[in-house]
Amino acid sequence: QVQLVESGGGLVQAGDSLRLSCLASTRTFSNYAMGWFRQAPGKEREFVAVIGWNNRNTNYADSVKGRFTISRDNAKNTVFLQMNSLKPEDTAVYYCGAAVAGANWYVGREYAYWGQGTQVTVSS
Length: 124
Hints:
Layout: E1 4-7, E2 10-13, E3 18-24, E4 33-39, E5 46-51, E6 58-60, E7 68-73, E8 78-83, E9 92-99, E10 113-114, E11 118-123
Parallel strand pairs: 2-11
Antiparallel strand pairs: 1-3, 3-8, 4-5, 4-9, 5-6, 7-8, 9-10, 9-11
């Protein structure tokens, strides 16, 4: 099983920025599309952002467009999520996932591997 480890979460104020990282323990990292999802207490896990293996194709949830940026460094087996202008409604556990070819990038159950998440809390 591929191991994914998220880091970079924390407690911040509205308007602040955070950068999340996800380190993958696989020698075939470039074969996977990498996505970020988040889950707030009592809510379903929702799509946030995804980046394809070619490092060109990216998509974002409407709620984060213009504020969040996803990127990847295949040489370091790492995907990032830069989060700017954070809002209290961004508070959630953020999960990194890896998807193989043919998966629906916008559906969480389509991802083959998941990390354990990192908590992001934005105070008002």
